[in-house]
Design goal:
The complex is a heterodimer of chains A (174) and B (325).
Chain A (H helix, E strand, L loop, with lengths): L2 H22 L5 E5 L2 H12 L7 E3 L8 H4 L18 E9 L3 H13 L4 E9 L11 E4 L7 E6 L5 E6 L9
Parallel strand pairs in A: 1-2, 1-3, 3-4, 4-5
Antiparallel strand pairs in A: 6-7
Helix pairs in contact in A: 1-2
Chain B lengths: L24 H15 L16 E6 L5 H12 L3 E6 L11 H9 L5 E6 L4 H8 L5 E7 L5 H15 L6 E5 L6 H12 L4 E5 L15 E3 L2 H4 L5 E4 L15 H8 L3 H4 L7 E3 L12 H4 L6 H21 L1 H6 L2
Helix pairs in contact in B: 1-5, 1-11, 2-11, 5-6, 5-11
The chains are: A alpha/beta (174), B alpha/beta (325).
Chain lengths: 174, 325
Amino acid sequence: MQSEAIDGLITEMVQAIKTRLEVQQATDPVMIGIHTGGVWLAERLHKLLHIEQPLGTLDISFYRDDFTRIGMNPKVKPSQIPFEVEDRHIILVDDVLQTGRTIRAAMNEIFDYGRPASIILATLVERSGRELPIQPSVVGVRPPLTNEQQITLTGPDPLNLIIGTSKQETRGTS
Amino acid sequence: MSKPNIQLDNNGRLKHFLTIDGLKREMLNEILDTAESFTGVSERVVKKVPLLRGKTICNLFFENSTRTRTTFEVAAKRLSADVLNLNVSTSSTTKGETLLDTLRNLEAMHVDMFVIRHSDSGAAHFFATHSAPHISVINAGDGQHAHPTQAMLDMFTIRRHKGEFTGLRVAIVGDILHSRVARSQILALNTLGTSEVRVIAPRTLLPSDPRTMGVHVFHDLEEGIKDVDVIIMLRLQKERMTGALLPSEHEYFQLYGLTEKRLRAAKPDVIVMHPGPINRGVEMDSQVADGPRSVILQQVSFGIAVRMAVMSMTMGTQAQGAAGR
């Protein structure tokens, strides 16, 4: 999928997030993107939603549940949450939702910073393969993919979605 | 022919951390980069990540230490590991138990990692060689051989302040002869591509041929620190001194004590480091130790992040080894 189409999806997501926030009566929200693709997407959403607080970023490497199987990711980026999490409405952003394990880890990490009032999850792609009961609040696209197919967001500029066959990326558990 | 490095697993990942010797620049940079990402954890409300939850780390100290043992303990706890602190100098070795028996007993308690300090050079290596395959060993100082986590936290501090190592001039001052810290620092500095490493010491506190270590030797402090970017002061190790190597502490300070006045010979933005504990008025005066160029307390904070990095990297390699248990 090319960058123009993704821009279109992002515009739709912005609308959907606004609606969702209104329904929940969530005022003054903050946004957190998950490294790496989630941050690229969050940077765009953050700007379009005119969120006052700076964008937060999470690297969930320290919270992964497969650490004892695959070891330390050598390219961990520091998590940066430049605002108080306590009692805030959080928009959590990731590129692809698949197993749900990344989101589980991200929520665990967020709760180590404080107790948010609410978290909504926005992902560009929702696909099959869920291993945990995690549901996105806002989704850009739901492509029909087989288990062998992998979908990856490349970026940061332009953003492209690439579909390939599996075994290219053994670390990925979106 | 190089023999296989016991510190690395089959995939070239860090399994034990015993010495800087034999580790490549990429590995040292990986440790520093990983440590960088851990610095944030200590500044959060909840100063903990769940990485090593359920693991048991044994701090096995056959030699006194407060700072090193405490920072290892804090690092382990911030990784959510369980920590056993054993000060063996006051324990069963005085009853005659051998090192191997101590190891076997602790293994029977299902310890996953040993952090070991011992007055014998090679003690950590001995543990790494004889412990069960899933166990990682970190050297927290062995005899006059190595103290690699101290060296890496010093490298981290230098990198934070100076960026790249190429182009840097670093002077190490003091008791080079007895210092495992200096030995590890020199190896790390040279591996990371430091332009010039100097050692400054009286002849009695230098090894017989210091030049083989890849350093320039100075006997005069002011001459040696001329135009340096970093000064690392070493502690005068009274407990390791046998024989009349020095006339007196007072005279040592007269010749090698770092003062504000002497510091002027170095670059204006020089940083002053010390592994602690400082003997004020012996290695440096308080004005320098507490002054604007001193980064001594930062070294302590960074020590936690560096130890978290080394612990998580070595424990990460247990993955395959422990899977079949």
